[in-house]
Structure to design on (645 residues):
């Protein structure tokens, strides 16, 4: 089965005054039709920039400097700006973290949605509103016809995020990139939205890249997981395998800091230290000054270890002593 | 909405009342008009007769009371200088100021907002930097100076446009205006440009600031992620958001320009209310001063009311006080 999206060697750099920051460093992954890939990492690891790079929406001073993004056989990076615009929202969509900020505060929900419909299809305003209503129903919004006339501030956070998702899937895109869409919501709403998203992938065949810093969320939702650290993917594999037998010490650290998996009463272990500045990463493995297993060897670039389906970049992967 | 307007009108009455007291007392503190009006050689009996005729021998509160009673009956008094009713004096000058101000505000907005949009959309381009530099000139060089330069350039040296005065005036929809003839326009153009430059600079900077901030907002990125074209992003999504401060400043500027187009009217010898008020201050023509200032207060109150209503139309998050 061919992949809905195939990202190869994607690299994005920011030219800042202090130097060049490689926020996305040689990232590769692919997602099949109807599959959900969880892209996991601490804040600042380059997840959002990866999403923006795929859509060609990196803000200056950032620039995608290398790699390929294949969607339905087309390399998005080779497209003209106008051809790229036509792919956005149609072939590849994205929703963002903060539902309070992603909708335009002064436009009615239906108006924003109709504009999104008409960005790609020349239909009447009426027909566009009808499609908007149908899309709201798909994401489980009750009384959709009334909601169309609401302004964003009249909706709850969960509702707004559903509206954003409905906008993103108006054109049945092949790929949906969801950038921490439930982080700002409370747990029960989050659960409902996750269920809707899973159903969406199953029903429509949309491939989903689910970005999160929360391993617990993806463990129940995703088919596959990529773990990102300092702009690189450090571990990849099927979700159950990565959760059950993590190879990379960083993945292990992320899992240990998930509250739900932890014995109550004991202090929650945290990965020591914090995300390093991308401007002065240690040589070799970027994780080595936080890693409990680090050795002298780790000052050299770590190799790819593991199997064809489940692998990590580490000199001393877990489970192999 | 109705409740809001009623509430605002009631507040406005209070404001107008308070302002009228302040203006009245202030104007009466400036000086005694009799000294200006009467030939110093006039006899004491002529002096006394005039003082009595204008009620200047009454205590201040009484004079004020008489003034308010008359105003309530639609009588703003008579000009001491021209000896005609103040109302007809002001209304005979008003159309000239109105047309000048509307042309100036139109120029300022129709050019300033698009220039500001461009300067905010591409803030690093050369053209944007040039626009910003010009906008600084627009409101840092004094109006009278620009006015004189315009006259020097376009009237004296090039001879393209007249240097002052109002052109041919014709009746249009019950209004006496010079905007229906080319000759009238040739007279309006220079003073209107002069009057608009400051406002245009303001509009450019305001629009640009709003634009720069809005373009960074998440909803813009989201709109782009939906595949909207840049034109749709700017005009469909952003413009609506940044129009709120623009409308506010437009309203305030409209009011202050109507009231105080004095400098431009003087430089271009434009027969509007600005010139009238300057003359009446110089001649201590109290009824004109008081009535004019009270009318200005009413004007501001009305414009503010309209701005608030437009505001609530543009920004759905604003609920007018008095609404459910
Ligand atoms: N506008 C920018 N200028 C400079 N560096 C940036 C900019 N945006 C992002 N970065 C860099 O990219 C890194 C990754 O950011 P991001 O993708 O937002 O992280 P995540 O989404 O994983 O939390 C940041 O740590 C920062 O170093
Ligand atoms: S390469 Fe070394 S430092 Fe890096 S994660 Fe593996 S053990 Fe730790
Ligand atoms: Mg992020």
């Amino acid at each position: 089965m061919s992949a809905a999206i195939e990202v190869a060697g994607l690299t994005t750099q920011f030219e800042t005054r202090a130097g060049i920051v490689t926020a996305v460093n040689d990232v590769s992954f692919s997602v099949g039709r109807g599959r959900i890939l969880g892209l996991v990492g601490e804040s600042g690891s380059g997840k959002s920039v990866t999403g923006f790079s795929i859509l060609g929406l990196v803000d200056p001073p950032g620039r995608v400097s290398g790699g390929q993004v294949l969607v339905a056989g087309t390399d998005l990076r080779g497209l003209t700006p106008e051809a790229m615009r036509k792919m956005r929202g149609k072939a590849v969509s994205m929703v963002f973290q903060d539902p309070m900020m992603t909708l335009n505060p002064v436009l009615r929900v239906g108006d924003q949605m109709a504009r999104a419909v008409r960005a790609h299809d020349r239909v009447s305003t009426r027909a566009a509103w009808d499609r908007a209503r149908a899309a709201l129903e798909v994401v489980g919004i009750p009384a959709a016809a009334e909601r169309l006339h609401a302004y964003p501030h009249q909706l709850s956070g969960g509702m707004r995020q559903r509206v954003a998702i409905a906008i993103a899937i108006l054109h049945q895109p092949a790929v949906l990139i969801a950038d921490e869409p439930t982080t700002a919501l409370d747990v029960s709403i989050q659960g409902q939205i996750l269920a809707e998203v899973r159903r969406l992938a199953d029903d429509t065949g949309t491939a989903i890249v689910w970005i999160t810093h929360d391993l617990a969320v993806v463990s129940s939702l995703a088919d596959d997981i990529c773990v990102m650290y300092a702009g690189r993917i450090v571990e990849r594999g099927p979700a159950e395998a990565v959760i059950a037998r993590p190879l990379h010490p960083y993945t292990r650290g992320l899992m240990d800091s998930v509250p739900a998996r932890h014995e109550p009463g004991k202090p929650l272990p945290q990965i020591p230290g914090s995300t390093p500045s991308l401007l002065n990463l240690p040589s070799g493995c970027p994780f080595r000054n936080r890693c409990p297993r680090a050795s002298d060897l780790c000052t050299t670039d770590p190799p790819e270890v593991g199997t064809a389906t489940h692998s990590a970049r580490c000199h001393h992967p877990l489970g192999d002593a | 909405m109705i409740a809001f307007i009623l509430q605002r009108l009631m507040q406005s009455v209070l404001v107008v009342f308070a302002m009228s007291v302040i203006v009245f007392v202030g104007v009466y503190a400036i000086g005694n008009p009799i000294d200006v009006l009467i030939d110093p050689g006039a006899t004491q009996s002529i002096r006394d007769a005039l003082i009595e005729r204008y009620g200047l021998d009454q205590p201040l509160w009484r004079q004020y009371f008489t003034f308010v009673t008359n105003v309530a009956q639609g009588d703003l008094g008579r000009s001491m200088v021209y000896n005609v009713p103040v109302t007809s004096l002001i209304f005979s000058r008003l159309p000239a100021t109105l047309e000048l101000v509307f042309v100036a505000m139109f120029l300022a907005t129709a050019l300033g907002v698009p220039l500001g949009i461009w300067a905010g959309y591409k803030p690093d381009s050369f053209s944007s930097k040039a626009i910003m530099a010009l906008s600084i000139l627009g409101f840092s060089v004094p109006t009278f100076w620009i006015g004189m330069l315009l006259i020097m350039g376009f009237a004296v040296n090039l001879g393209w446009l007249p240097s002052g005065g109002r052109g041919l005036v014709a009746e249009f929809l019950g209004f006496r205006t010079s905007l229906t003839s080319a000759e009238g326009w040739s007279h309006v153009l220079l003073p209107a440009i002069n009057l608009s430059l400051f406002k245009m600079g303001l509009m450019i900077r305001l629009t640009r600031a709003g634009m720069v901030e809005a373009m960074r907002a998440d909803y813009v990125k989201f709109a782009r992620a939906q595949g909207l074209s840049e034109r749709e992003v700017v005009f469909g999504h952003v413009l609506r958001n940044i129009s709120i401060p623009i409308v506010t400043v437009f309203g305030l500027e409209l009011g202050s320009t109507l009231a105080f187009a004095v400098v431009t009217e003087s430089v271009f010898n434009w027969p509007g209310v600005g010139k009238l008020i300057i003359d009446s201050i110089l001649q201590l023509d109290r009824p004109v001063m008081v009535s004019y200032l009270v009318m200005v207060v009413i004007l501001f109150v009305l414009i503010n009311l309209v701005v608030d209503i437009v505001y609530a139309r543009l920004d759905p998050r604003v609920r007018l006080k008095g609404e459910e």
Notes: The longest strand of chain B covers residues 170-172. Chain B has a mean pLDDT of 83. The CA atoms of residues 142 and 198 of chain B lie 9 Å apart. DSSP finds 13 helices and two strands in chain B.
